[in-house]
Amino acid sequence: MSMQVEKFYYDNKIVRAFGYATVIFAIVGMLAGLWVAIQFYAPAASLNLAPTTFGRLRPLHTNAIIFAFVGNCIFTGVYYSLQRLCKARMFSDKLSWIHFWGWQSIIAAAAITLLLGYTTGKEYAELEWPIDIAITIIWVVFGINLFGTILKRREKHLYVAIWFYIATWVTVAMLHIVNSLEIPVSFFKSYSWYAGVQDALVQWWYGHNAVAFFLTTPILGLMYYFLPKAANRPVYSYRLSIIHFWALIFIYIWAGPHHLLYTSLPDWAQSLGTVFSIMLIAPSWGGMLNGLFTLRGAWDKVREDPVLKFMVVAVTCYGMATFEGPMLSLKNINAISHFTDWTIAHVHIGGLGWNGFMAFAMMYYLVPRMWGTKLYSKKLATNHFWLGTIGIILYAVPLYWAGFTQSLMWKAFTPEGQLKFQFLETVTNIIPMYITRSVGGALYLTGALIMAFNLYKTIRQGKFVANEEAEAAPLLREAHPKREYWHRILERKPVMMLVLSLVLVAIGGVMELIPTFLVKSNIPTIASVKPYTPLELQGRDIYIREGCYTCHSQMIRPFRDEVARYGEYSKAGEFVYDHPFQWGSKRTGPDLAREGGKYPDSWHYNHMYDPRSMSPGSIMPQYVWLLDNKLDTSSTPAKIRAMKTLGVPYPEGYDKIANSDLMKQANTIADNLKKDKIDTPPDVEIVALIAYLQRIGRDIKAEPKTQTAMK
Amino acid sequence: MKFIHYIEKISGVDIYGLVSLLIFVLFFTLMLTWVFRVDKKKIKEISEIPLH
Lengths: 711, 52
Description:
The structure holds two protein chains of two kinds. By secondary structure, chain A is mainly α. In chain A, 63% of the residues lie in helices and 3% in strands.
């Protein structure tokens, strides 16, 4: 069979653009991370400015690392490998550049809005609705370009890396759309469509699968392409990679509820999450071993080549994190680990080890090749490798220690049956671990800076090949061979692949979400739980704006120590008006689910002005601006109307009179403060925040005792 | 639109478990069957795509 070979060119320019963005945002994201890490032991590092305070800077760090650094890394790798695996240039250069500039604009908009306090208050999905829409559009542009390229390919078969890209694209689209359903109140403020338990379930279905389908599957695609490339040998077992793929995407989607163990989420959903999390070990380790075994008999190359060094540690960290994840999903281990720094250590094994090191390996591989030269300094790359590796250890080990210690201290009782430690004692005790962690982070960042220098020098000594020449025969529509297995047919039909992936990931979501939404007995209602007053609602929005949920949970688990420390454990019915839910995932400060009525108004006022005046040794930042900022009451009617649309039972026409109720309550609080010699106008933000804090968790106390005991 | 609980209680909830298990077993049986039946030469060819 003879056919004309076609000559064509791979587009390296777009790869270069995404590559530059990867390196820049790696450094930006890590700097933000280091800054928030320092605030743990030096609260003054918040500079007493709203934009640089932990609650706003931490979402900036997580978003920058996930969507800017890893996001650009994914696109770099996909745009490079997809063209070569398909033996075709990208479908449309124009779409490539719309994708690039669109994504960078989204990042810029995210950075600005997060620092200004525009947030939905849902972790890793903090961006407000106009940006959510922009993400959707740009994601579709990427999708068209991805599928366009696949459809015009010159290679018959779709290599497994492409399957991972397809699954990533379709699942991220589904997760993003479902979790971002929100009702706009103004241009940069919205409320989550879901409330309380339902919101929590959707959020962690999203949050967990953002880890799965943004931080894992695309990077696995990159692993299946770049690891064989760098080692110059095919992957250990292609059969295993097929099993890895289908098992991973099938199982991952179910595991979300393991983020909500011992919470008010119905028990059956928690168990489902645990079971599937344990099963995840199999495909994850299959993938890890497949990666490592690819290097069998080639370990001498690992000693020489920095690219392979980074990959080996990356894949090992993937294995560690995916073993630890299922372990943390066991209820007895989760009871210790949850809400502590253990979780932070766990995600950084994944983030620093798996994502970071894969990105570095890829950059060290790509730059010399695209500039037709050798890496400027192997020695610097090796130094980077060691700084990074030691950085990861210095980061994670102290935090494991901190998490374990703190949790045991929380749970300690004296022989008399009293809690042994104040919450604050458990925090000050682990400050040395926080310091060590930031040293680890600083080393890791230093390594990244060395890489940037090394890549810069490499680029300077080479000459960029913007359009790389290649040749291949076009794909012919051939008659089907006599024995054709159905999967191979599937392999040739990317659209079918897309549909089947979507069906697979949708099953898990549907099975989990539908019963929680439709079945009443899953969320028992509590008659005494009432909607927030307008002032409390405004205060709650300030709580969300300042990112209080990044350090404070609102979820008392049914443990002896938590009930003794915070009060009665949280019930599903208490959160039915919480759009969005604010359960949180980390307790750097104490739980606030029963904060209402614990302290006088004046305590909160002084505590917000200077936390250390009320609790010496506290590491909470100062919120001085809340004392002066005028409360924006012009938004009250729109907020009440939005809540009404979402089913919160405010009386008809309440939006028109809400502000007069708001002022009444504000005046009462201002009068209260005056009694404690604090002179403040009633229309400042701190008053609204106090109103909210004094309300949290109180409704249930009005419930007749016998009934609460039954539920 | 509001999220109302349309159903008071879920009756015959066991069917959910059974169906899930069935889908799960069926899916993996099918997948494993073809993975091990698929032609060796073809697999080798595909796995070498990145190296060309």
